Amino acid sequence: MRHDDGRYTAFKASVRGIVGDDGVIDDPVRTFAYGTDASFYRLTPQVVVKVRSEQEVVDVLEVARVHQTPVTFRAAGTSLSGQAITDSVLLKLSHNGTAWRKYKIENGGQRITLEPGLIGGEVNRLLASYKKKHNCETQYKIGPDPASIDSCMIGGIVANNSSGMCCGVKQNTYHTLEDMRVVLVDGTVLDTACTTSRAAFHESHAPLLAGLSSLASRVQADASLLALIRQKYAIKNTTGYSINALADFSPSDPIEILKRIMIGSEGTLGFVSQVTYKTVPDHPNKASAFLVFADIEEACDAVAALRKNTKVDAVEMFDRRSLKLTSDMAALVALCPELPHLPADGEAAALLIECRGKDDEALAAQIESVCKALRDSRVPVVSAVGYTPEAFKHDPKDFNVYWDARKGLIPIVGGGREPGTTMLLEDVACSVDKLGKMSKDLIAIFQKYGYHDACLMGHALEGNLHLIFNQSFKTPEELKRYEDVLYEINYNVAIVHGGSLKAEHGTGRNVAPFVEMEWGTKAYELMWELKRLFDPQFILNPGVILNEDPLVHAKNIRQDFVAHPLVDRCISCGWCESNCPSKDLTLTPRQRIQVYKEMSRMREEWTASGAQLKPARLLAFESSWEYAENTCAADGMCQEKCPVKINTGELIKTLRQNTLEGDGTMSVGGPATPRGAALAAMLAANFGTVTKLVPPLLDVVSLTHRLLGNLPMATLTWGPWRVSNNYLPLWNKYMPRGAQPVVVPTPPEVAADAKPKRVVYVPSCVTRMMGPARGDADAGDEAVHTKFMSLLSKAGYEVVIPEGLGSMCCGMIMDSRGFRDVGATQAAQMQQALLDASDRGKLPIVCDTSPCLQRMKEKFDDPLLKLALFEPVQFILLYLKSELEFAKVRDSIAVHVPCSSKKLKVGEQMVQLAELCATEVHATPIPCCGMAGDRGMRYPELTSSSLQHLDGMMQKHACSDGYSTSRTCEMSLSNHSGVHFRSLLYLLDEAATPKAAPITARNGL
C-alpha cells in the first residue's frame, strides 16, 4: 500500500470542497471494502471519492494533477483482471438521484445514448419498454452481452470492450460505437457528436491529434504490423490498447481514432462520461439446444463446422468439470438426462447452441441449417436427440435453464472450490479451427501442474475460452506454481496457437507483463507511445494494461480465508450488488462478506497472539461493522442475483442471533443481550394482546398528527427515536391508522347441487394492525382484509378464517431481528393452525401480504400445506380472475413488486393484473425498498438510499398512485415518492365486478 507523504492528506482536503464530506471515504473499513473487485487481486485505496457529475470528475482530476495522486475509475467493479482497484485514489461513480443514469433512445430504438452508471441489462429493458410504448416493429438491444450484464455498468462495458455470450467480434462496443463524451487527464471534455466541440478540440489539442495521425500513418505504412493487427482482431482480443483503431481509420480523421482508442482502455487514457451505441436487432424468436459430446476436441470440431457453414447466433462450451458441477441443477438434468451418466474419466463436453430469427420461418430455417452442418460434419454426439430440430427448446422456461447455467458458470465453478482457496480466471482466444488442439494443450498444462479442478468453458463460436482454476497462496511454493502455470498457458496461447491472452475481460494487471509476448516489441512500444501521448504524467490508472514490473500479475493477490459456511464460497464477483438496498449507504453483500472475513482473520490472529488489548484496526472494523450490520435489510435479494445462491442476509441474521443469545464469538455490537430473547419470547406468547393494542395506538398517533400537523409531529418524534438508538420507529406522515377488526362476510348462496367455493384466508398480522395512511382518500377507512373479503365475495367464495387468528404470526419480525428460535416457534404454531383450517391442505390458503406468504413457503415443512399456499396475485389469477370483470379505473400508476414476490416469480403476473385496471402501468426499477419489516423505519436512511430514484420515476410517468402487496413496504414507498402506495387489492376491488350469469335460452328464444 502506498505511504501518505502528505499528498493524500492535501488531496482529500481539496476534494472535500468539491464533493462534500459524504463523497470522501477514507476510513479503514470502507477503503478495505472498496479494495476488492471481481478479480483475484486486492489493493486498498488511500481514499475513495464518489463523483456525481462530469464536472466533478474534471475538478477532481485537477486536484490529482496538482498533488500527483494517481486516479482509478470504477463503475460496478465487476472487472475480472484487477483494473478497477488501486492503492491510490479510487473514483467511484455515485448513484445518488439521477447521477450517471441519464439516457436517450432515438430512431425507433436503433440508437441509444447512455451515461456510465446504467446497468447493461437495465439498458436492454429500457429498449424493450421503448419498443412496447412506441409500437416499434423491431426489438433492439446493445451489442455487448457479458454474463454479468445484469450487474455490470455501461462504464465498465465500454472501458473493457466487453463482449459476451451472444456478442460476436462485430457486436462489441468498438464496432457498435457511434459517439462519446470523454474527459481527458487535463480536464478537457470532448463530445465527438458535437461539431463545435470537435472544432475546439482540434484547436486546443492539435499536438495530441497530430500524434494519433502520425501513429496511424506509421501503422498503415507498415505491411507486417498492419497484417499482425488484422490477424489479432479477426478473433476476440482485448490485450493491450485497441490499436486496430490505428489501422481502421484514416490518419486525416484522428478524432475517430481517438474515440475507438478509448474503447477497452480501462480508464488509463481518459474517462468516458457518455456513449452513443448503434443497437443491434434482438429477434424475439429464439431456440436453444444443449448437445453433449464424448470428447472436447470433437465438440470443437462441431463448432468449427458451425462457424464455417452457418450463421448460428451463439455457441457456448461446457467442459467435463463444468458439466459435473451443473449436473447438480435438477432443471438442467431434466432437460439433459445424459449428464449424470457421463463417464468419470475422459474429456466430455457440451455445446449450448442458440438460433434466432425475425419470425418462425426464419428461425426454423436457421435451426435446419445448423442441424445439416452438424450432420455433414460427421462428428459423433452423445445426446439422444442427435442433430435434429427436436433438440432445440423454444419455450423460454426451458432454454433459460441452459442460459442461466451458462451465465452462472464462472461463479458456480469458483463456488465449488476448496474453502480457503482463491479462484483464478484467465480469458483466452484463438481461431476456431485451432480451438480443439488448444483446449487439449491447456488441459494437459493444468494436469501437469496439478490443477485437477480446473475447467474450460466459454464462447466457442468465437474461439474464446475462460480458464478457471483454484489454489491457495499461503506459501512461496504455491505462488511459484501459479507463476509457472500462467507463463506456460500464455506461451501456449500466444506463441504456439497465435491467440489472444485476453479475449474480453481486459488486460488489467493480470496479463500486463505478457502484452509484449503476444504482440511483439514493435506493437508493444506503439502502445507505450499511446499511453504517454494521452497521460504523460501517468495519473490515470498506472500499472494497468502496460506495466514494466514482470511480476505484477503475481503481486497483491487476494487471500481467501474461511470465515463462515454461509459465505465461504463467495468469489466477490459483485453480481449481488445491484440488488442490495444499502449499496449506496454502507456496504454491499460482497463488501460485507470481505469485511467480515477480514475481521474474523484479525480476531483469530489476536486470540492466537495472547494479547489483552485488541489491535486498533480490529477495533475500527468492529465499530464500523455494527452499523453496517444494522443497515443490512437481510431480505436475501442478494441471493437472487448470486449464481451460487449465497444469502448474505442469512449470515447477518445468524450473527444477530448469536449476539442476542450471548455467543461472544460473533458479537461485535457491545455486550450480548440474552434478555432481549426473553422479551421476544414473552411478546410472541402474548401476541394476540399486542395485535389488539397496536390499532388504537396507531389511531392515537394519527389523531395527534391531524391535530399538530406534519412538522410538529416530526419534531415531537425525533427525540425519542434518537434516544432509543434506532430501536423505535421514526414517524413519517404516511404512517398508517389502526386497522378495522377482521369481519368475515356471509357465505354466498349456492345451489343445492353445487359445490361451494371455499378458501382459507389469512390476513397477516400487519394488515390486521395497520390500516390506510391518513390523507389516503382512495383507500378510505377500510383495511386490506376488508378489500380482499370484498373481492372474494364478488367471486362467490366462502371465506374460512383459521382458529386463533388474532395470535397468529409467521415469525418474520422476530427472525429478522435475530430472535430466530422465537420466530420458528411462531411459524410452527401457524402451520398447525392452517393444517386444521384447510383440512390438511385440501382447501387453498391465501395470505394478503407477500413477504409473510413467502416465509410460510420457506419455513413450513408439510408438503401438502406448502402446495396449498398462495400469494394474493397467484390466487387471484388462478381462482378469481375468471369470475370477475375488470374496468380500467386509473390512467397511470406505479407497481412495486416486493422482494418476496420477486422470489416467488410473480412480478410479471402482478403487472398483468394491474394492467386490467389501469391504462398505463409502470413497474418500479427497485430490487428492494429496504423496509425489511420495521428496519426502514428505524434506519430511515436505508430506505432513503434504496428509493433514491423512485420520485423521479413517479414524476416522469405522472403516476397518480402506487400499488404493492406489502403494507410496510407501501409506507416507505409513499414516504419517498410523495404519492400514496397501497395494496394492489384496493385497485382490484375498485375495478372488479362479478361476471354476469350466462343467459339461459327459454321456450326456444
Give an overview of the whole structure.
- The protein is α/β, with parallel strands linked by helices and 1005 residues long.
- It has five domains: 1-100, Uridine Diphospho-n-acetylenolpyruvylglucosamine Reductase, domain 2 (2-Layer Sandwich), CATH 3.30.43; 103-281, Uridine Diphospho-n-acetylenolpyruvylglucosamine Reductase, domain 3 (2-Layer Sandwich); 283-401, Alpha-Beta Plaits (2-Layer Sandwich), CATH 3.30.70; 561-671, Fumarate Reductase Iron-sulfur Protein, Chain B, domain 2, CATH 1.10.1060; 673-1005, no CATH class.
- 44% of the residues lie in helices and 14% in strands.
- The strands form eight sheets. A six-stranded antiparallel sheet has the order 12-14-13-16-17-15, sandwiched between helices.
- Strand 27 (961-964), helix 41 (967-977) and strand 28 form a beta-alpha-beta unit.
- The longest helix is centred in the C-terminal third of the chain and has 22 residues, at 687-708.
- The radius of gyration is 30 Å and the shape is globular.
List the helices and strands and how they pair.
Elements: H1 7-19, E1 24-25, H2 28-33, E2 47-51, H3 54-67, E3 71-74, E4 89-93, E5 103-106, E6 111-114, H4 120-134, E7 140-141, H5 154-160, H6 173-176, E8 177-183, E9 189-191, H7 195-204, H8 206-221, H9 223-232, H10 244-248, H11 254-262, E10 271-278, E11 280-281, E12 285-293, H12 296-309, E13 314-318, H13 320-326, H14 330-335, E14 349-357, H15 360-377, H16 396-407, H17 409-415, E15 422-429, H18 435-448, E16 455-458, E17 464-471, H19 476-496, H20 515-519, H21 521-534, H22 589-609, H23 616-630, H24 637-641, H25 648-660, H26 674-685, H27 687-708, H28 710-723, E18 736-738, E19 757-762, H29 765-769, E20 770-773, H30 784-794, E21 797-800, H31 812-816, H32 820-837, E22 845-847, H33 850-859, H34 863-868, E23 869-870, H35 872-880, E24 884-886, E25 890-895, H36 899-903, H37 907-915, E26 918-923, H38 935-938, H39 940-946, H40 950-956, E27 961-964, H41 967-977, E28 981-983, H42 984-991, E29 992-994
Helix pairs in contact: 1-3, 8-11, 8-21, 12-15, 12-18, 18-19, 22-23, 27-28, 30-42
